Every structure is written in C-alpha cells, then in structure tokens.
Amino acid sequence: MALDLNNEKDLNDKFSDFFSRYKKNIFISIVLFITFYVLTLYISGNNEKKLFLASNMYQKVLLTKNIIDADVIVSELKHNFKDTPYASRSAIFLGNLYSKEKKYDIAKDNYIWAMQNAIEPSLKSLSHYQLGINYYLLEDYKSALQEANKIEDGGFIGLKNYLLGDIYLKMNNKKEALKSYQITFDYYVDKNDLAKVVKTKIDAISQE
Fold this sequence. Notes:
The protein is mostly helical. It has 2 domains: 51-152, Serine Threonine Protein Phosphatase 5, Tetratricopeptide repeat, CATH 1.25.40.10; 154-208, no CATH class. The protein is built from 9 helices and no strands. It has helices at residues 2-63, 67-80, 85-100, 104-117, 121-137, 141-149, 157-170, 174-188, 194-206. Helix 2 (67-80) packs antiparallel against helix 3 (85-100) and helix 5 (121-137) runs antiparallel to helix 6 (141-149). It is globular, with a radius of gyration of 29 Å. Mean pLDDT is 84; it is low at 1-5 and 36-44.
C-alpha cells in the first residue's frame, strides 16, 4: 500500500510540475479554443440568418408581377447576398423575365452575372443554358454553341443536347443536329413528353 501511495504522490508532483511549467501555454490554448468555438457559432448564426433573408427576398422576386420591382430586389440580392445561391437564382429568373420582354441584352447581363457568381455547379450550368438560349434568340449561333458546350452538370444532358440540336439545325449542320437530338431522345424516352417533340424533329431530318 505504501508503494501505491508513493506512486500516487509522484504522479501528483509530476502533474503539478507539468502544470506549473506549461500553465501559460495551457491557458492560451483554452482561450483560443473558446474564442474559436464562439466565433464558429457566431459565423454559423450569421450565415443562417443571411440564407433566411435571401430566401425570403427570392420568394418575393418569384411573386413580383412588376419587372421593375423584381429588378430592385434582385439588385439587392446581388449586392448584399451574392454568396448565397438565391442571388444567382434570382438573376436567372430576372433574366428570363427580360427575355420574355425581348430585352435580350439586359437578360444576357443577368445570366452572365449568375454564371460568374454561382456557388452551385447546377446554377452555373443553368446560367450557361439560359445564356445559350439568349444568344440563339439573338441569332448569334456561334456564341450560343459555345455556351451550350460549357454546360457540365449531368442533370442538363437532355436540355443541353436539345439546345445543341436546335443550334446545329440553324447552322445547317444536320448531322450534328441529328446526333444531339438522338442523345436528348435517349435521355427523355419514357420519362418526359419532350421525347415526342424530339422524335418528330429526328424523323423530319431523317426524311430530308
């Protein structure tokens, strides 16, 4: 028993000596850990608040019937919330509104902004897709082709090749148009009614 008590005393002495020698470093480490923890909670809380506010603003954009009012809200999202996905989504939505009004230059600016600031790969691909359509409507088929080929997200395979098919057809490249339409058909067959539309185009080209 005496041996055990001596060992315990030695351990206590060693611990006290260790603490005395390194207490400054231990104290600094504890302070840094607490600071980091509090800072992490603060940043996390701010990010959640920012996402919540951006989400609400995005919903307002979707419900706004006046394009000017939508533009004002989107401008604020771009300026104050560009590090959230809602900023790029709202820019794409606004671009579509302007495109319907045939204001293709303003639409293009919004698509480009969304593409350059997108924090999600799917939004970047969507931006390229909408920008490709925009160039297609402007009859700038070369630029439309470049944008369509920049679409990388796998979820856009069907839409990408449908757009490519339309572009190639306008460029009188029926071989590539047929190839792109076939990819779209294979992707959407038994999944989407767009397959029927594409099949009609494939048949029309094949009969020429």
